[in-house]
């Protein structure tokens, strides 16, 4: 039943509208949000199970055959990412009621939350470059609404920056799609790939490829286009930051992964070689940013940049291990970044500040929270046996087999510094004398810890259960390295 | 305060608003095979409603047209989505459409298509969004 | 004979269209100058309204030129939008508010 593919897009859309209808009754919207997000997780899990056990599912909407109509492609990579998105979304749905103020909830938070999920799932599932743009716009519209939710002065200032930079890159995106349409006469990704293969990737197409990379790199916050990202991601509420940090940049890097493994693979020495250097610089500058600040939210936001760098590095070396590492790291990072954002949200809430210099001794009051942060930091930095380790192991195998020694060293150093930057929160925030002045009277963290534990459980399962997961990831990378499979499954030749 | 004399505006509005609404319905139903459709029909309806607001003021029109336009957005979107979901019942690809010809007493033979239902959803959404935006801007003082 | 008459009619139509297009373009340019120059806002409002009417004329001429009935809806739409725009501007100039809370 090919209609299954559209469900992860349609269910959140319908849920968003229904939730908007009951906007004033907060109790109803909360329950509906939880129900719908769990339903959607179930559907996404079922979809990925079918895709992994049988084959990619292709939906040609309205019975228009592949190169002409709008198509949705649920291949292993897309369905895996949709599943991860929904795992993250469920955690945020359960965290949100305890973290948002009533005013934010009745300003259509849940509706826009669902529209964001719609856009993200759509961007993963579409098989059409123009529809990728459409779904980007859907998720950006929702994110514009979410980032100003609450309407504080600093939010408005940062959101102007955010909206402008995203509008600009959207303009470039449409232009690039138009150029591609002019050069090869189609916007269906499989057909573009086929035609680029036949007529060769000449100068025009490579230029368009670089333009597309620029667009996606802006969305994914790669060096040198990351300057807008960290501060805009920390100004909204914690849940919104977690959603943005986990999903928006990942959609950007997913698009790079898709376009540069399927379409523009004929000038590797020009495009993919550059990616390795951009990846290295992203790691270095992201880590420097994370080390330079004492704001705990900003530390986590800056940590997004090296993670994107790691994923791009795997694409840059473009071999089996590298691509497996990229896919694995993408999934790992979506989950752990959400968990970390939620953890620092709780820390900032219980400490009453997000400035590290004003904290200390929190472990006497919140031991559980401290150890959660400790585990999360280890997962993020890649200490065995956690999931970050497996991802980095695969990535470094990839780089070393291509004799890219410099990038390997940069990656190792930045991993260490990532660990330090997150441990800094633990050391400065949790260690220290017990504060006797009663500055931190015990605040209730009811309902906030559950979603974090749930996410960390998934993350640890990714690491400990690597034996079962890595073969699937390796099958995805084999699939990505051979564009023919995608083209044939879509165009059915 | 200076009180303008807008007798002409009010008189013409009661006539023109009806012409506009009729034109909107025409555009909505013409949209399947010729220029028009839910979007433009919705815009024209919104124009008629905004014209009434301009002529009679918010409180009067709210009494005459007790519609919550924000709810209208949701209703329109649900209509549009549910139309798409109809494909699940008939086991055809999402957004597939079909049409048939029917005989009606006054209109004669009429073509009815399932795409029409989707258009009606779009129509309500556009009316809701447009009027909500315009009223919000107008209220911002 | 009839063929000849048709040809003549077509030539006349072509020439008329040509002249009308030029005339409307000139008037649009003049209106644009009036709109930019002012000197007062009511002048600009009147110029804008007249531009709307001229646009309807252009659409009608195009419909004749392209021999299509599909532009009729467009003409109606332009008329509606121009009317609404003029009403809104007129109300703004007179009262400073376009949609009042309570009129009485």
Automatic annotation (TrEMBL), chain A:
PANTHER family assigned: NA(+)_H(+) ANTIPORTER SUBUNIT D1 (PTHR42703:SF1), NADH DEHYDROGENASE (PTHR42703)
Residue stretches in coiled coil: none
Claim: Transmembrane helix is one of the keywords in the record: yes
Record's keyword annotation contains Transmembrane: yes
Pfam families, sorted: Proton_antipo_M
Annotated Gene Ontology cellular component terms: plasma membrane
Localization per Swiss-Prot or TrEMBL: Cell membrane; Membrane
UniProt record similarity statement: Belongs to the CPA3 antiporters (TC 2.A.63) subunit D family.
Transmembrane regions: 6-23, 35-52, 64-96, 108-126, 132-151, 163-184, 204-227, 239-263, 275-292, 299-318, 330-351, 363-383, 403-427, 448-470
Species per Swiss-Prot/TrEMBL record: Ornithinibacillus halophilus
The protein's name: Multisubunit sodium/proton antiporter, MrpD subunit
One GO BP annotation of this record: ATP synthesis coupled electron transport
A GO MF term: NADH dehydrogenase (ubiquinone) activity
InterPro entries: CPA3_Na-H_Antiporter_D (IPR050586), NADH_UbQ_OxRdtase (IPR003918), ND/Mrp_TM (IPR001750)
Domain NADH:quinone oxidoreductase/Mrp antiporter transmembrane: 127-417
Record's bilayer topology term: Multi-pass membrane protein
Keyword annotations of the record: Antiport, Cell membrane, Membrane, Transmembrane, Transmembrane helix, Transport
TrEMBL record, chain B:
Membrane-traversing stretches: 7-29, 35-55, 67-90, 110-138
Sorted UniProt keywords: Cell membrane, Membrane, Transmembrane, Transmembrane helix
Domain Na+/H+ antiporter MnhB subunit-related protein: 8-132
Keyword hit for Plastid: no
Localization of this protein: Cell membrane
GO cellular component: plasma membrane
Keyword Cell membrane carried by entry: yes
Principal location: membrane
Membrane association type: Multi-pass membrane protein
Superkingdom of source: Bacteria
Ranges in coiled-coil conformation: none
Family as reported in the entry's similarity comment: Belongs to the CPA3 antiporters (TC 2.A.63) subunit B family.
PANTHER family noted in UniProt: NA(+)/H(+) ANTIPORTER SUBUNIT B (PTHR33932), NA(+)_H(+) ANTIPORTER SUBUNIT B (PTHR33932:SF4)
Protein name: Multisubunit sodium/proton antiporter, MrpB subunit
Organism: Ornithinibacillus halophilus
Automatic annotation (TrEMBL), chain C:
GO cellular component, one term: plasma membrane
Record's subcellular location: Cell membrane
The entry's keywords: Antiport, Cell membrane, Ion transport, Membrane, Transmembrane, Transmembrane helix, Transport
Membrane topology: Multi-pass membrane protein
Gene Ontology MF, one: sodium:proton antiporter activity
Family statement drawn from the similarity comment of this UniProt entry: Belongs to the CPA3 antiporters (TC 2.A.63) subunit F family.
Name of protein: Multisubunit sodium/proton antiporter, MrpF subunit
Species: Ornithinibacillus halophilus
